[in-house]
Design goal:
binds uracil, six-stranded mixed β-sheet, 4 domains, 42% helix, alpha/beta, five-stranded mixed β-sheet, elongated
């Protein structure tokens, strides 16, 4: 071994390429070079080794583009011998000694497998990095911990820089840390896993995962191949997997048993036309407006087929109080606004009585499509089942994450279940404050249609009184009661 080449940890590909170009231009054979990396200066060889010449030599090597591309991928593989293997391939290409770019050649095959493994590792990084938000004053700041199999943070970071260009972020890995600050990407030494803050948006991932999880399609081996177990510990959603798998068979049975809602004549045509005019949904809506636009195209469950349209929430996007009903009714479905039918009138009446202006709150529903059974010309309300409610929790989770109300009022059992995950009977819980998905408070109360359903006038008056009393308490807690300043608001607590 007569030459030692030590490459830096960062900018590895450019450094290897520059060294290989010099070595081949002096026709230095592969067995004469010892490649190491990590910025050290020691040669591990038995013989005294000198560095490569400083300048390009007389020989002009022709290097095919396909090799440059292959080398640009293989270089990030974690196997130390990749540096010498790449130079051996370059040497043989230059001497026209076989075809190390072909997979029929043992060296070519090894390099191709390495490139494939690197590509897969970058893909996994893009899919499984989970950012957590840090407190910030200006640009939003995020941090993530990831353990790649190869040295893929450097080639994989450009994707995040493009995608999250308007925020600052750090991705820490054991070997390298990528920092993206004020639009500039830089790399620094890695280290041990930092203490990551809990993040309110984690429940979004969990909700999303719970929603896309189809128990009828569980294939454990395929699932492990796509999301290898070693990534699970850093993913919030995978904490749900054991429970979801436990329940999978029962859920498949429930799906089979569940009756479908018959579409209203003409509804499919209306909704197809409607969807056709909507822009494609972004991956994870960043604003309420984006979330609303995405919800308009929702096809998470069968309810969208029969309903006229998605009924999104309305009110103040920074409301301290969110009021959540069950699902839109017949009028809401036709007009596209929540709480404008008979139950909505009861709710709005009670809100007016305790001094809550609907425009200062956010009114929405746990399920965004009307579920009904056709009876002649009528559409009779049907309660959404557990699965439909869980599917729709994706949207409710987005509303909560984007509005961040200080208090949520759950009207009735469906909203209470969607907001707390607890499906216990409502009566003993009414008037209590339970905990929502962000750890935020959820005040449980009657649904206004429970009041409308009461045959007994005294019972109806009692429920109506309880609803008004709960809304008055909510208004006080949120600083929305008449004459009360927002200083006492629960927001941010
Ligand atoms: N009932 C609800 O729960 N929500 C509405 O929007 C209307 C009636």
């Amino acid at each position: 071994m007569s030459h030692a080449v030590t490459l830096p940890e960062r900018g590895l590909f450019d450094a290897w390429r520059a060294a290989a170009r010099i070595a081949i231009s002096h026709r230095i054979a592969p067995e004469e070079i010892e490649w190491t990396e990590g910025g050290g200066t020691e040669s591990g060889g038995l013989f005294a080794a000198s560095p490569l010449p400083d300048a390009i030599g007389p020989h002009k090597a022709m290097v095919p583009q396909a090799f440059v591309k292959l080398a640009g991928s293989v270089i990030w593989h974690s196997a130390p011998e990749r540096l010498s293997a790449l130079y051996r391939a370059l040497w043989r290409i230059d001497r026209r000694d076989g075809d190390p770019l072909s997979q029929a050649d043992p060296l070519g095959r090894r390099l191709a497998l390495m490139a494939k493994s690197v590509g897969r590792d970058i893909h996994k990084m893009h899919a499984f990095v989970r950012f957590r938000e840090l407190p910030s004053e200006g640009r939003r700041r995020f941090v993530a911990w990831f353990e790649p199999e190869h040295d893929t943070l450097e080639p994989g970071s450009a994707f995040f820089a493009r995608r999250f260009a308007d925020m600052d972020w750090i991705i820490a890995t054991p070997r390298l840390t990528a920092r993206f600050e004020a639009g500039r990407l830089s790399f620094h030494p890695g280290g041990a896993r930092p203490d990551l803050p809990e993040d309110g948006s984690e429940h979004l991932w969990a909700t999303y995962f719970a929603n896309i999880f189809n128990p009828a399609r569980v294939k454990l081996d395929a699932m492990r191949a796509e999301m290898p177990k070693k990534y699970w510990k850093n993913l919030p959603e995978t904490r749900l997997i054991p429970d979801m798998l436990k329940d999978a068979e029962a859920r498949v049975e429930r799906m089979r048993a569940a009756a479908t809602t018959l579409p209203r004549p003409g509804a499919a045509a209306v909704s197809t036309r409607y969807r056709g005019t909507m822009p494609a949904a972004p991956d994870l809506p960043a604003t309420l407006e984006e979330a609303r636009a995405a919800a308009m195209q929702c096809r998470r469950c069968g309810l969208c087929e029969a309903a006229t349209q998605t009924v999104w929430g309305e009110g103040t996007p920074t409301a301290p109080l969110m009021i959540v009903g069950e699902q839109p009714g017949d009028r809401e479905d036709l007009e596209g606004r929540p709480f404008i039918g008979p139950a909505g009138q009861v709710l709005r009446g009670a809100m007016a009585e305790v001094g809550i202006d609907p425009a200062s709150a956010w009114l929405t529903n746990a399920v965004k499509h009307f579920k009904f059974a056709p009876r002649g010309k009528q559409r009779l309300h049907q309660r959404p089942d557990r699965q439909e409610t869980l599917h729709c929790r994706w949207w409710l989770g987005l509303e909560l994450a984007l509005i961040r109300p200080g208090l949520v009022v759950a009207l009735g059992a469906t909203a209470a279940f969607a907001l707390t995950g607890n499906d216990a009977p409502l009566a003993p819980r009414r008037g209590r404050i339970e905990t929502g998905p962000n750890g935020g408070p959820v005040l449980i109360t009657w649904h206004p249609s429970a009041i409308l359903r009461q045959r007994d006038r005294a019972a109806a008056a009692r429920l109506r009184g309880a609803l008004a009393q709960d809304l008055a308490r909510a208004a006080r807690l949120c600083g929305l009661a008449p004459g009360q300043s927002n200083a006492t608001s629960l927001r941010g607590t």
